[in-house]
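Annex B.
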Amino acid sequence: MRIAMIGSGYVGLVSGACLADFGHDVVCVDKAADKIEALKRGEIPIFEPGLDALVASNAKAGRLSFTTDLRGPVSEADVVFIAVGTPSRRGDGHADLSYVYGVAREIASAVKGFTVVVTKSTVPVGTGDEVERIILETNPDADVAVVSNPEFLREGAAIGDFKRPDRIVVGLEDERARETMTEVYRPLYLNQSPLLFTNRRTSELIKYAGNAFLAMKITFINEMADLCERVGADVQGVARGIGLDGRIGSKFLHAGPGYGGSCFPKDTLALVKTAQDHDSPVRLIETTVAVNDQRKRAMARKVVAACGGDVRGKTIAILGLTFKPNTDDMREAPSLSIIQALQDGGARVRAFDPEGMKAANDLLSDVTYTKDAYDCATKADVLVIVTEWDAFRALDFPRLAETMAAPVLVDLRNVYKPEEVTRHGFSYASIGRGT
Ligand code: UGA
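UDP-glucose 6-dehydrogenase: predicted structure tokens.
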């Protein structure tokens, strides 16, 4: 198959590289000339484990190339993927579809012969209809089938998620696209990943419903964690106890400082807006959004409590800034709200993150960035684990105790068992462990 991938950001690049690895001929297109030039030199603009090697080997094999020119690759393609951004629109929380629609217009004037146009970007229900309308309005002779094929990649695990998905969802209205999409995903299909064909609107909603459900599941266990602290129960025991029920499932029941990232906050908000517009409010998700927003800042109160009720003039060492490990993504990261709240309370903040410090520096002010966890802890009154990077899973507590002003650890990801920390003379606070 000849594939044009429009948009070489996170989703486009991972999908393009993986599809090339399946043996397809993939051209990744992006308007940003500097990004394309860097990719041609083999430089990957994002941090994603394994992506550099995958891009390099497929580029070398001649299956993966990069260009700023949309017309050429689209005119030759059997399948054109739209993988441009759909950020939250400023002011109203709706998904901003201007990039998707702009690309649809450009595709319309470039397509030749029957072409399957696939929306991979996360888009609200009905966007496929509009993409089809725009293409046919721009070029009434275009012979296209517009398909919805949402992605379910997790940052930091994206290549594995693409190559071994729980399912592939394809929403179509034109039966001709069924064969093409089966061909695109043939290697996965042969590996027994279910290929779920449905109509376009159902497919678009599956993506939002999936992310909203996961966000709700995390928020549920976070509220249970707060309750555990009050009633003397252990949230990890509760998660295990309910997770073994096959109807509930054990995944995404890890309590923490609230979900962040580029997907859950944006997608839950967009679903709430769509539902309100259709006079069918999703109140569980409205509440999820509100509870999660409040939670991030509330985590700072845990730190204040660990410091004896006041952080003014105190030095706080933050380990982990990104919204989760194995990414350099700072979008909607709980660390941002926590650090802001602590600074508002008069604290000095030191921080270390293996990948996120560059992005954090653009979003936060007055933070001292350090070279590792121990440097970060120097003279600190409290050490706070905000993101569970592997580098923080085996800290040398005697060494930390020597360098810190006071041996206090706040573990917002429950990386440690309490006794592993307290036996070194530390005072220890974590999430939902009231026992
Ligand atoms: C999420 C979904 O997991 C993917 O399936 C989806 O494709 C993607 O959004 C998307 O829409 O593009 P991602 O945002 O990369 O992927 O990250 P997750 O691993 O899902 O984590 C999201 C947030 O939830 C993080 O802040 C994480 O720390 C938090 N989380 C996750 C918890 O607090 N507890 C958990 O048990 C799991």
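Residues 153 and 160 are 8 Å apart (CA to CA). The first strand starts at residue 2 and ends at 6. Further annotation is deferred to the next reporting cycle.
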